[in-house]
User: Fold these one by one.
Assistant:
Number 1:
Amino acid sequence: MTTRLFGTDGVRGLANGDLTAELALDLSVAAAHVLADRGDFAGHRPFAVVGRDTRISGEFLEAAVVAGLASAGVDVLLLGVLPTPGVAYLTQKLGADLGVMLSASHNPMPDNGIKFLARGGRKLDDTIEIAIEKRMREPWQRPQGGGVGRVTPYAEAVDDYVTHLISSIEHPLVGLRVVLDCAEGAASEAGPRALVGAGADLTAIHAIPDGLNINDGCGSTHLGPLQEAVLRDGAAVGFALDGDADRCLAVDHEGTVVDGDQILAILAQSLHEHGRLAKDTVVATVMSNLGFVNAMREAGIGVRQTKVGDRYVLEAMNISGYSLGGEQSGHVIMSDHATTGDGILTALAVLERMATTGKSLKELASVMTRLPQVLVNVPDVDKTRADDDAVVAAAVAEEEAVLAGEGRILLRPSGTEPIVRVMVEAPTEQKAGEVADRLADVVRRQLAL
């Protein structure tokens, strides 16, 4: 079986190990052939926009990507350091044939990744990714002379994106004291500028990237520093972004974490009240807390659940015309303003809700009661048998009877590793843990490699 290059969010790996300059160049040539091919370039010269996060490896990978695109006859606008949603926005705004973002999101600094965006700033579907992989290293007619692409810096990238972000809200944020953790990443300039421009009294932390410190003990995967800063500054709220700022988690004024499910619930209720929630439905994944689902239904809001991954949330939104979706991890997609998850946009929307209602984040988050959730990873098992094993299925049915409708069980094979994830929600942490441990033992015995 051939291993695919593209994972759930582009091509990702150890920079200069798995992800080399040569691979980046070859991928970019193939992507140019697939995404910039209009069949007839008469009167139109294809062009791309390229952005990156702050990783030091992004510099040489950017050079390789640009070389590949230009050698294939594609003009390139260099956006510099910009969040993934900023690259998506400018792909759409500038009418580019494709966008490229160099980032490994929340991964450690040594990793990096290449994300391609189609026209309109949309993520690629599987068929396009497969087509790009098939075109790699194929013989092709190389343009020469004036046919090669030109490379031009686009100095207005951050300005354009920040203007777009501020325009997404109607109510000024004056009087709200906010802490923003930029994760030493792609939003270190755009994030603070957007929140200050919208009127917030801002303290920015981890906003001095040096190419080496991205996600290092900070950002959405390390919330401790944000909690400390919120309590120290007496702030009303804190937000933490990840390395490419396509997701956001929050902390209330008491230092309590507010996760993606709670943020999604706050925004869904707000849009619903204003008649702007398309089809009165929000899209979430099967990992969303049962408390979220219950709260939405009590508010008269439908919940459409998908497989885990923001690409599946986006797919459901695009197919059915929904306007809001997201994940527990903090990916929130507001299709009225963006084609992908946007952490800064999410923070602005939550702050506007606080400003217009006069309520604290703690009060707003109380719209849902989170059920205790326990996740156990069972490694070194045959995940392909997880859905079909009769003994595992019987054990799940038995434990569901124990929960008696007051909880939920989900067994989910990992997409990348020989792991089965056992997730249990129950009225208490102890009960959830006991059920999860018993099921994990069954999975371990039955599916052992």
Number 2:
Amino acid sequence: MTPTRTTKLERGRSVLGPALELIHTGRAPTRAALTAELGVTRATAGAVAAELESLGLITVDSRPGAASGTQGRPSHRLAVDPGGPVVLAAQVHADGFRAALVGLGGHIVATAPARRAVAADPAQILGDVVEAGAGLLESTGRRCVGAGLAVPSAVAEPEGTAINPLHLAWEVGAPVREIFTHALAQARISGPSGESTAPGHTANDINLAALAEHRHGAGRGAQHLLVVGTGHRGVGGALVLDGRLHTGSSGLALEVGHLTVDPVGRPCHCGSRGCLDVETDPLAFLEAAGRDPGPEVSLLERSQELIRTAYETDTAVRGAVGTLIDRLGLGLAGLVNILNPDRVVLGGLHRTLLETDGDRLRTVVADSSLWGRSGSVPVLPSSLAHNSLVGAAELAWQPVLDDPLGALTA
């Protein structure tokens, strides 16, 4: 091998990870775009694309073509390989859990039916999660290169413990990452190289939702992205700065659910009153609408269905929507004043509230915040159906994105 060839190959391998991430997030749909984004020669970009293709991660069109609406030299199109490897992604929440297989690009390949019960023993529920994922792998025959888990709790780093699983019957400090990894080993779920057990990556569900929305959804392109949402119980928030989650010194940053929006409101688990966590989640909505929450269905699904079917005809439902919007708007205004994001994305029931009466919500935010008043902070609905699942997959994909060759051939 000539020195020139050796240098070209080494240079190409040094940008394999950045190249894969550009294709994974849709920022390099062609080899020309990849060349420009990486700042390398066309020959180097071609070598990089060829190596990622040989690893089974992407596809490269054999014949170059011009993208629709563009001018200039046609370029080979790049895409994640739809038949390539997957990761096992799972989410546990107050009303149950779901497992899925997710490929590069945030594409959900297969999902197991949602379960409606969460055991008090985290080892049991995480064993069930992994069992469901193993069933998907067996039925699809896909190669697994990792596993990620989203949980409704702050996860302390580096220990991987759930320190405030408020809406689950788990003990505080449950070692969820260790339990998850053990369950993966028991089920013989493989890691990136195919020879070892997949490590269990675990993080807070709203943090992972924010990561997914930033890479693949409504937050794509934002430099300072604030995501706030309520799923089945409670309220969470996350901040993505320059493409990276802001998690604080030990993974516990941005507990936005404990901002006070009604000083004489409901008692909160934190010891205060009127926090976002208890004033703007599905349980608060159902109570404000005069409905019995009931044990038989998801609180989130029941709330969304009630808004969809009764908002126009039921004054109690319409009033509950207005009340929650006003409380949520006050909380968002405070966050905008403190964090100065360039975009806000809302998920779960908050997304439904925004879609139901976005003008009212944006007005409350604008009237209560310095930056919101200028109209420079767009408030958008999340665009991914299962963003916490996709975010859990991002955790598992990260070692491959960092070093594709090393991760898959070690």
Number 3:
Amino acid sequence: MTDNRQPVAELIDVTRSFTQGDITIDVLRGVNLTIQPGEIVALLGPSGSGKSTLLQALGLLEGGFGGQINIGGTNTASLDSNGRTKLRKTRLGFVYQFHHLLPDFDATENVVLPQLIQGTSRDEATARAHGLLDALGLGQRYEHRPSKLSGGEQQRVAVARALANRPLLVLADEPTGNLDEATSEVVLAQFLELVREQGSAALIATHNERLAEKMDRVVRLHEGILS
């Protein structure tokens, strides 16, 4: 059956260059990518291939990109800074290699905070946070601050935070790259299960071929060209 729903995200002939002195470096060279609702896509490529820059394009995290970037059917070129910020907060979730949790907040508070910013009531946000933390095996860690959590536990909290507002698209940049192999597999499996359960789409950058095989589709970035 053909899925006629609006793509979650589209990159159309997207380019990004940086100039250093007299040298221009083309990091993205005419990238085209479409992600459908509920689709989990692995972005493979070696270090320096442009994976993080491509994620920044979709995450609306910086300007300077050529081509067209659509999120949920919205051409982001038509948005001002406030519009991009609003779209990022309401439609996108982020997981990084390093968790970037707020050190003075416990696990629950780290997952509650983005929901409060979104306008969710504290009671509802707390219930959502606990549900996600339970699903990630952190039911006994609600009140633990990041310094009291293992690396794998910290990254699980980061996953819960990224999914808290039920984003249209989750962007993950080497989300298990800082974990040992066994922990990496467990965290990724839990991450993928939750993404699929709530129907979000995801683009997950990795250099690990074996982890990429667990996703719906694999695209490869090499020297700024996507294939």
Number 4:
Amino acid sequence: MIALGVAAAAALLLLVAVQGVRLMTSTGLETVEEQYRPAPTSRRAKGFVGLIDALGERAVGTAVRAYGAQRLRRLDVAIRRAGRPDGVTVTVYVRRQAGFAVLSVILLALFALLGQPLVGVPIAVVLTSWMPLWLHATGRTRQQEIDRELPDFLDVLGVTVTAGLGFRQALERVCEFHDGALAEEMRRALQEMAVGVSRREALVGLRERSRSEAIASLVTALLQAEELGVPLVEALAAIAKDVRRERAAAARQAAARAAPKVSLVVTLTILPGALLLIVASVLIANAEVLGGIF
């Protein structure tokens, strides 16, 4: 009992000492200053993404050196073509890629200790290839979105040019009322022109970022209209018509490729269930005969 009282008194004295040190080193204005402190410009992601960032933080330097300057430049181009999804930069991408690599090594070692290395290998492969697959899928989705928005965008742009505005003013006007990947790329080209980049260089940069055949045709038509004096409205209408024709042909091709896939799904799902029902009904109907045989 005496020992318990001594322990409680010691704990109380420790708390009093900690509080006294805090009062001696504090100004009493910390909570007031916290209200006026500027918010951080960037915050760490939370959840699983935050865990991946934390795992890759220590290995990001090694990963950058392993990539090399040339691969980093190609990676930056790929990220810009994908529209910088979720604000991802080259550093963030490399850090998360390193985090997935570290996590795959940890899981591979864990499954090896559990005596199941064959289970850890495919998981490690999926984790290490996740970021490249995600970036490729995001860039492909963005390119499809640009191709889908381009005909309507060109129609509105052609009407605006017909109304008497110049190309740059018409493009700015149309971008004000459009959202999406195409309008974002057009606004980026306009920003480059605003800081002194020539129209040709801005349009060529737009073509390189998008990697879309429709955008390439648009850029070629715009450059020819500027150099040769071709009427811009007719060029925009012709490009919109060609893009719609290509989209219709692509839709027909996709529909033709879908038929074998549907047949495969039906064969692998509905047919086994139907056979199971038939066999079960036959066995139930002939239960007495089969019981006599076996």
